[in-house]
Amino acid sequence: MKQQTFTVNNPTGIHARPSGAILKKASVFSCKVELEKADGTKTSAKSMVGVLKLGLKQGDQVTVITDGDGEEEALQAVGEVIESVFE
Known about the structure:
Layout: E1 2-7, H1 16-27, E2 32-37, E3 42-44, H2 48-53, E4 61-67, H3 71-83
Antiparallel strand pairs: 1-4, 2-3, 2-4
């Protein structure tokens, strides 16, 4: 199991488009990929509704937790999407 905390940099937070990008990136990997907010709320990164329900805003910290084959690659790939700025 691997985990790392990332910061949401997108000015409008994690809305539908970034959520879809997180889902798409996480789904490439067979390992378990979860997102956890600072308040302990956790969801699968492979669930668009779950990611949207986290209500992540710019500046929020979110921990990516991966477990299984390809966990390190999944951690970095999903983290990059979380820290991306979408236009």
